[in-house]
Amino acid sequence: MDQSSYSTTDSADTTNESPSQNKGGLSSFAVRATSGLIYAGLFIGCLYFGTIPTTIFVSAMSWLCCFEFFRMMRLDGKVANEFIGLTASILFPVASMFGSLWVTMLFAVLVLALGLWYVYSPRTRISDVAVTAFGPLYTGFMMSAIVLLREQVSGPKGALLTIGVCASLWVSDSFAYIVGSRLGKHKMAPKISPKKSWEGFFGGIVGSMIIWGILWATKLYALNLPFAMLCGAVVSILGVFGDLIESRIKRGVGVKDSGNLIPGHGGMLDRSDSLIFGCITAYLLLVAGGVL
């Protein structure tokens, strides 16, 4: 999620703007829009064609996000075991295709592998082990919810539901930016993400609720309107927490973006931070509500 999504009207604060936002005007917007459309098109296409393409795409996303996380941690003096961490980040979405037993087994193997690494590598610190474990859990495990969502409902209905969940987070981001840039006056988390405002935060919730209202209106799922609105609000809020968590990580190591993979957006982790917590929240709500 873009860090400027909850912008306040304090124009002097530009600490979270990327170079593409600061110069280039219309051309920068065109680059950002084009790269965003390509990303969304690939994502939606994989969701449409089924669980296996979805799993491949989510595993690739997880690997990239975990790689960027480890790279940031090196700036903080933490040396992760990238082979173990990156392998686990790929395997968590794959394991989710085969059920909770395989995910549990992967957890056990990950802990065992890290324990053995710690025992047989005298220079390894426990902080290195912790960072190596957190990386794939924060990325691959959490984003496995996208695969679970797509797998639970077969065919176009499953694709539409998963696209709708992701779209609710994307639209929440857009509404937050629009409302925040025009009306934002009250800063939400000035020490972590100075340009976010409470006005943008509530605007984002409205945007998410609109998408969940559309999912309810299709009558394809066992959703009632109050529950759909609840899902829209809670998913948006957890998406914001995902954004703030990544912002805190970046601020802690002194970088603006997790990477530069996606022109105008930064790294894959910048693009996926709200999905990390938003999608797993949506999955748990839908299961708890008897929709899945």
From TrEMBL:
- Record's keyword annotation contains Lipid metabolism: yes
Key word Repressor present: no
Q: Which residues cross the membrane?
A: 37-67, 79-95, 101-120, 129-148, 160-179, 200-217, 223-241, 274-291
- Compositional bias annotation for Low complexity: 1-15
Q: Which UniProt keywords apply?
A: Cell membrane, Lipid biosynthesis, Lipid metabolism, Membrane, Nucleotidyltransferase, Phospholipid biosynthesis, Phospholipid metabolism, Transferase, Transmembrane, Transmembrane helix
Family, as annotated: Belongs to the CDS family.
Which class of enzymes does this protein belong to? transferase
The way this protein sits in the membrane is described as: Multi-pass membrane protein
**Source organism phylogeny:** Bacteria, Bacillati, Actinomycetota, Coriobacteriia, Coriobacteriales
What are the GO cellular component annotations? plasma membrane
One Pfam family from the record: CTP_transf_1
Record-level GO BP terms: CDP-diacylglycerol biosynthetic process
- Name the predominant localization: membrane
**Example of a GO MF term:** phosphatidate cytidylyltransferase activity
Named in its record, the pathway it takes part in is: Phospholipid metabolism; CDP-diacylglycerol biosynthesis; CDP-diacylglycerol from sn-glycerol 3-phosphate: step 3/3; Lipid metabolism
**Subcellular location, record wording:** Cell membrane
Q: Which domain of life is it from?
A: Bacteria
Enzyme Commission number, as recorded: 2.7.7.41
Q: Where is the segment annotated Disordered?
A: 1-24
Q: What is the reaction catalyzed?
A: a 1,2-diacyl-sn-glycero-3-phosphate + CTP + H(+) = a CDP-1,2-diacyl-sn-glycerol + diphosphate
What's this protein's name? Phosphatidate cytidylyltransferase
